[in-house]
Structures are given as C-alpha cells and as structure tokens.
What we know:
By secondary structure, the protein is mainly α. The chain contains 15 helices and no strands. It has helices at 5-8, 29-46, 49-57, 62-83, 94-115, 121-127, 131-143, 149-169, 176-198, 204-214, 216-229, 236-264, 266-271, 276-288, 295-312. α3 (49-57) runs antiparallel to α12. The relative contact order is 0.21.
Amino acid sequence: xxANDSAIAPSPIAVTTPAPAPAAAHPPAHASGSGALLAAxxxxxxxxxxxxxxxxxxxxxxxxxxxxxxxxxxxxxxSCLAACxxxxxxxRHWAGIAVVAGGVVLGFPLLTTLALQTSTTSHAAVxxxxxxxxxAAFSAVRTGARPSRTFWGAALVGAAAVIGFAVxxxxxxxxxxxxxxxxxxxxxxxxxxxxxRLARHMPGWQVIGWxxxxxxxxxxxxxxxALAAEPLHLTGHAVxxxxxxxxxxxxxxxxxWYRGMAAIGVTRASQLQLAQPLLTLIWSVVLLGERLPPAxxxxxxxxxxxxxxxxxxxx
Length: 315
C-alpha cells in the first residue's frame, strides 16, 4: 500500500439516528374522547350514591351501611386482584393508596351517610356540587397542574352557587348535615386527586382495589361491631341500596372514574362532576319521591352551565 493511500481513502460515513419526535402536548382526540366518556360514566354511577344510601338506611344503621359496603366491595375487588394475579404495588405507591382508602373508602361514605340522617338527598346533592372545585384545587397542589383563569372563574361561579343554595336552605346558618358534607368534600377531593395521579402508574381498578383491601383491618371489625350494635331490617330497598353502594359506587364506578381521570387529567375530569347534582336530583324525585325546593334545580342548572366553560378552558 502506498503511503498516501490513507489520505485518499474515503472517510467513514457517519450514521445518525433521527431524534425522537416530541411527545404530544395533549392526548390524541380518540383517547380524550374515551377518557371523557369513562369519567362521565363514573359520574352517572356516583349520582345514584345518595338515593342508594337513603334506601340502605331504611333497614340499617349508618355505621352498618358504611362498613358493609366497604367489606363487600373489598371482597369483589380482592377476588379480581387474586384472579388476575396482580402484583403488590411498589412501596412508593402505598402512601397514595392510603389517602384513597382514607378519603374514598372510609371518610366520604361515613360523613355523607351521617349527613343524610338530617339532610335530604336533594340538599346533599347540591352541596356536593363543590366537589369538582375541591378536587381541582387538590390536584393543582399535588401535581402542579395550572388551569387557566377562565377555568378557575367558571369553577368559582359554580361553587358560589352551591354555597348560596346551602346557606339559603339552612336559614343562613350551616346545619350539622352541612358540616358533615363539607368535611366529606375535603377528604373525597384528596382521595380523587391522589387516585387520579396513581392511575397514571397502574390501572384504575387496581388503585381502588388495593385501597379497599388496605381498609379491611378497619372495615371488618367495624362491620362486626355495627351489626351487633345497630338494628337490622333487610327490606328489598335496604338490600338493593347496599348492593349498589358496594358494587357500583365503591368499586365499578371508581374503576371507570379513575381510568377516565388518567386519560384526560384530574382537573378536567373533576369538572364533569358538576353534572352529578342535577342527576342526583332527578333520582331523588324518581326513586325517593322527594319534592325539590325551587332553588335546587335552578342551582343545579347554573352549576351545570359551568361545565361547558371548564371543559373548553385550556390549562
């Protein structure tokens, strides 16, 4: 080989790998649509919670209703976890699961059941209309989400309408039932926001499933105590209400709700719950024969009108 061959030899061709395309800022349209549909299905399921609770209370005490619904839901969820051979969540997820258990499995059912001892389902439904705003606030703090000013403005208008209704119905001073309901709002919002965050790391049904299992050391002894301490009359309404609370509100509804939140975001999904008071008002008339105060449907429709604004508002 001549000495200058190396000088005239072609240089190696550099092989470059194309840079990956940047991730989409927003989920695909089909994913957003299906996520909104799942979240809406969860809202429809939850809208029956208060009427079902009222039915269950016809034959059971409040502690019996709360503990039995959680134990039955845990049996259903645990069977699914065992059948699918789901691995135990990583240690870093257990704190969040505990928040879900404390807020969704124990706190909200107990506080709302106690509130329904003195409040009608229609009144409770409108007060719970504050839940979307509370959930959005918890999500903003926990995940760093920053909804737009338009979003917060519409959410605050809906919240003001709900507070005004509650004050007007209670004669200017919140009653004991209202205090239970407002406490329920806080614990449930924390459970929803944390569950929505966890649903990005594991399927939504596993989030609520493990939360129900984690609560068993409290709910099983609680159910035994409640059955011994409170009267029990198993009417058709009582059994139907309890079964819906366990299978629908506590497990299946939470499955689609958390999956929907994972798809479209906690903040946006939470505002779909603005429709829940209106749906519950309808159920309270159809299933319970309640007579609505004139302000209830007006308030519910005003709150419902905020959904359009919040869903269009970009973060």
